[in-house]
C-alpha cells in the first residue's frame, strides 16, 4: 500500500552522519563498521532503496539546525547565521538529490497530484523519485522573520517553532515558557505564506499560546501520547482534543523512548522492553479513542532521527517494514478505509485542504 512518512531527517543523515542514502542499507551499515562517534553507527534503517521497497512514495523531509546561547548545553550553532548556513547546506543536498532523480519537491496541489499519478502508475521498476515536502524542525535558523519568505521560495512548506530546549521563537521539549515576540511575528508570517505549523516539540506553554494565535493549518508530524509515556515531549489528552478540533493529523513516532515507559538511552533494549510496531499502534489507537474516529492519525516515524535499530521497534529491520502496519491495524479491527487513511489518506486530505 502507498505510504506517507511525515517526518524523516534525510538531510541531517546525509550531511552530519555522512550517509549516502542512495546506497542499499547494508552498504551504509558496512561503511560505518568500527565508527563510534554516534550511538547508531551500523544501525541505520533508512535509505532511498528501502523507501521504494516499502512503497513510501512521499515523505516530509526536514532541515534542522539549532541556535544555542552561551548558557545552553545542547549541541548547536553559536549564531543564527551559522544555523541558517547549515540549513542551506542541507537544502543544497535536497536539490542535488532532485538532480540525481532520487527526490522530487512537492510544494503545491499540482505537484502533489502529479506525483501521486506517477507513483501509482502500476510500474514498480522505473526508479520513481520519492516526493518530499520540505519542513524546518525548529525555527532557530530563521535569522529574522524576513528570511521566511526566502525559505518559502526555496520550497519550505512546514515549520516547527522549536526543537529541544529554549528557542529563539518558542520553547521546546524539556523547556518552559511561551512564545517570544519574534515567535508571534513568525506565526503571522507563516499564516500569510500558508506555511503549515508543526506543533511537535512545543512545550506546553508555547503549545497553548501558538494554538491560540495561529489560525492557519496545523499538524503534528511525529508525536505520541503522554497518557502512555508520561513526558512533556508527548501530547496530553487535552492537547490531542484541541488538535483534533483544528483538523490536525498526528504522526506516530518510532523512537523507543517515546513508545514505552521507563526507557533508558544506551541501556534499554527494544526486545526486552517489548517495544514493537504494535506499541506505536497503541498510541495511534489512543488518539482514535479521543477523536472518535481514525481521521487524525498517520505515520511520522522519525526513523534514523539520531537513533537507529538500537532504539527502534525490535520487529523493524528497515523503514520498509512500515508495510506491516496495515495487517496490524486490521487485527485491531480497523476497517480497510481506516487503514488506507492511516497509511496515506489522512495526510493527503490534510494537504489537499491546506493547498486548495
Fourth CATH level, the homologous superfamily: Metal-dependent hydrolases
Portion in beta strands: 5-15%
**CATH fold field value:** TIM Barrel
Structural class by secondary-structure content: alpha/beta
The total of helices stands at 13
* Tally of separate domains: 1
Largest sheet: 7 strands, parallel
Radius of gyration: 19 Å
Tell me which CATH architecture applies here: Alpha-Beta Barrel
E-strand count: 9
Top-tier CATH class: Alpha Beta
How would you describe the overall organization of this protein?
By secondary structure, the protein is of the alpha/beta class. It has one domain (about 5-355): Metal-dependent hydrolases (TIM Barrel). The chain has helices spanning about 10-15, 25-30, 50-55, 80-100, 110-120, 145-155, 180-195, 205-215, 235-245, 255-260, 275-290, 325-330, 335-355; strands at about 5-10, 55-65, 105, 130-135, 155-160, 195-200, 220, 250, 295-300. Strand 3 (about 105), helix 5 and strand 4 (about 130-135) form a beta-alpha-beta unit. Helix 12 crosses helix 13 (about 335-355). The longest helix is centred in the N-terminal third of the chain and has 20 residues, at about 80-100. The protein is globular. The two termini are about 25 Å apart. The model has no long low-confidence stretch (mean pLDDT about 95).
Structure in a nutshell:
This protein is α/β, with parallel strands linked by helices and about 350 residues long.
Feature tags:
TIM Barrel, alpha/beta, 356 residues, single chain
